[in-house]
Design brief:
Elements: E1 4-8, H1 12-23, E2 27-31, H2 84-97, E3 104-105, E4 108-115, H3 119-122, E5 125-131, E6 134-140, E7 142-145, E8 152-153, E9 169-172, E10 186-190, H4 194-204, E11 209-213, E12 220-221, H5 231-235, H6 238-246, H7 249-260, E13 283-284, H8 288-293, E14 298-300, E15 303-306, E16 310-313, E17 319-321, E18 324-327, E19 331-332, E20 345-346, E21 349-350, E22 352-353, E23 357-358, E24 366-368, H9 378-394, H10 402-415
Parallel strand pairs: 1-2, 1-7, 2-3, 7-24, 9-18, 10-11, 10-18, 11-14, 12-13
Antiparallel strand pairs: 4-5, 5-6, 8-19, 15-16, 16-17, 20-21, 22-23
Helix pairs in contact: 1-9
C-alpha cells in the first residue's frame, strides 16, 4: 500500500512536494489554511494569519531563467523578473500541468502533528486538522512541513526606547500593501533588507520625507547587471561558484566588495556593510542610489529614542519629525503545530540535518522543506530538497546515524552564527 504523506502548506515548496510524492508513488494530502494555493506569491489586500504577506509592487528577485521549477520553465513572454501576479499564474499552471489540485484540501488548518504511540516502530504521525469548524484526525506515514519562514514578524519594540509614547502610526512591513498611506507624510523605515529598501523607495515618490535607518548597512545591487544581464545570471554561474570557493575568504570578500561598489561606492552613500565577513545576500533595488543622490531617501544610523512626534538618531541630538514608522525588521519562524521535541529551534536556527530532517528523530519520517535562504530562488532549491526528502521518506535513500547528523548540525551552528542562510 502507498505510504500516506501529509504536506503542510501549498506554496512553492508544498506544490513541489506534492509532485515529488506523486512521482515516487506516495499518496500526498496537502493541507492549506487559506482558500487558494501560492503561499507568499498570492497578493491579498488583507494580511492573512499564518501566511506570508506581499505588497502590491513585489517583483521576483531572481530572474525567470534561474527561478523556475527544473522541469517547468516560465512562459516565453514573461519578463525576466516576474511581478507577483504573473508568478502566481505560473504556480497555477504548474499545479494544473501536474494535476496537483486533487491532493490539496483548502481552508484546512493543521492544529497538531504528533508522534503515534508506536512511532519508534512505525514512524507514523497523528495529524489533527480544522476545516470550517470541524476537527478531524488522521494517521500519516510521513509529514512534509512547507510553511516557510515569512509568517511570524519579528518586531523588537524593546530596542526602540519611547516607542510607546509615539503618537504617529507604526507597523511591521508585513502589514504594508500600498504606498498611498505615505502621501505628504514624514516616513521612517527601519531595516535595510529587500522589503525595507523597497518600501523606502516607494514611499519616496509620495512622501514629504523618507528616512531609512540601518544599523549594519548592506550591499545593494540592481537587477540589471553587467551589460544589462540579470544579476543572478552573471553572479551564480558554476565558474563563479568554483572561483569563489577556491579562493581564501579575505580575497573573496575584497573581490565582492569591488564588484558591489562598481555601480556606486557604498561608503559615499552611508551603506557600507559593517560585517563583511558574514556575507549575506545582497539587497536588490534598481532605484535606491538615485533616490539617495536626489535627497528623496535619507540614510540614517540606528534609533536612539522615539518621542511623541519625532525620532532621535544615534548620530546627532536633533529630533526629526516623523508621522509613520515602518519596521522592516524581518521574521522569526516557528512550527506552532509541532511539539518542540520534534524540531528544536534555538537562536533562529532549527536542528535540521541538511536543513531538512530533525537530527534526533528515531525514524526519518518528517521533513522540513524550504526553510532555507539560498543565494537565489527558493523554487529550484525547495524542489531539489523535496526530491531527496521524498526518496528518504519512501525508504530508497538512507540517512546517516543520528550521532553523525547531530554532529553536522552542531558544526554548522558554530560556523554560521547569523541564522539560516549563507551565499558563498
Amino acid at each position: 500500500m502507498a505510504k500516506r504523506v501529509a504536506i503542510v502548506g501549498a506554496g512553492v515548496s508544498g506544490l513541489a512536494s506534492i509532485k515529488c510524492c506523486l512521482e515516487e508513488g506516495l499518496e500526498p494530502t496537502c493541507f492549506e489554511r487559506s482558500d487558494d494555493l501560492g503561499g507568499l506569491w498570492r497578493f491579498t489586500e488583507h494580511v492573512e494569519e499564518g501566511r506570508a504577506s506581499l505588497y502590491k509592487s513585489v517583483v521576483s528577485n531572481s530572474c525567470k531563467e534561474m527561478s523556475c521549477y527544473p522541469d517547468f520553465p516560465f512562459p516565453e513572454d514573461y519578463p525576466n523578473y516576474v511581478p507577483n501576479s504573473q508568478f502566481l499564474e505560473y504556480l497555477r499552471m504548474y499545479a494544473n500541468q501536474f494535476n496537483l489540485l486533487k491532493c490539496i484540501q483548502f481552508k484546512t488548518k493543521v492544529c497538531s502533528v504528533t508522534k503515534r504511540e508506536d512511532f519508534n516502530t512505525t514512524g507514523q504521525w497523528d495529524v489533527v486538522t480544522l476545516c470550517e469548524g470541524k476537527q478531524e484526525s488522521a494517521v500519516f506515514d510521513a509529514v512534509m512541513v512547507c510553511t516557510g519562514f515569512l509568517t511570524n514578524p519579528y518586531l523588537p519594540l524593546d530596542s526602540f526606547p519611547g516607542i510607546n509614547t509615539f503618537k504617529g502610526q507604526y507597523f511591521h512591513s508585513r502589514q504594508y500593501k500600498h504606498p498611498d498611506i505615505f502621501k505628504d507624510k514624514s516616513v521612517l523605515v527601519v531595516g535595510m533588507g529587500n522589503s525595507g529598501t523597497d518600501i523606502a523607495v516607494e514611499a519616496s515618490h509620495l512622501a514629504k520625507k523618507v528616512f531609512l535607518s540601518t544599523t549594519g548597512g548592506a550591499w545593494v545591487i540592481s537587477r540589471v547587471f553587467d551589460s544589462g544581464y540579470p544579476w543572478d545570471m552573471v553572479f551564480t554561474t558554476r565558474f563563479q561558484n568554483l572561483f569563489r570557493n577556491s579562493l581564501p575568504t579575505p580575497i573573496v570578500n575584497w573581490l565582492i566588495a569591488k564588484k558591489m561598489n562598481s555601480w556606486f561606492n557604498h561608503a559615499n552613500y552611508g551603506l557600507i556593510p559593517e560585517d563583511r565577513i558574514q556575507l549575506r545576500e545582497p539587497v536588490l533595488n534598481d532605484e535606491l542610489p538615485g533616490r539617495i543622490i536626489t535627497g528623496k531617501v535619507l540614510i540614517k544610523p540606528s534609533i536612539k529614542e522615539v518621542k511623541e512626534n519625532s525620532v532621535v538618531f544615534n548620530s546627532s541630538p536633533e529630533e526629526e519629525p516623523i508621522d509613520i514608522i515602518v519596521f522592516a525588521t524581518g521574521y522569526t519562524f516557528a512550527f506552532p503545530f509541532l511539539d518542540e521535541s520534534v524540531v528544536k529551534v534555538e537562536d533562529g536556527q532549527a536542528s535540521l540535518y541538511k536543513y531538512i530532517f530533525p537530527a534526533h528523530l528515531q525514524k526519518p519520517t518528517l521533513a522540513v522543506i524550504g526553510l532555507i535562504k539560498p543565494f537565489g530562488s527558493i523554487l529550484p532549491t525547495g524542489e531539489t530538497q523535496a526530491r531527496w526528502a521524498v526518496r528518504v521518506l519512501k525508504g530508497v535513500n538512507k540517512l546517516p546515524p543520528s550521532s553523525v547528523m547531530i554532529q553536522e548540525v552542531n558544526t554548522r551552528k558554530e560556523n554560521k552564527p547569523s541564522g539560516i542562510h549563507t551565499w558563498l
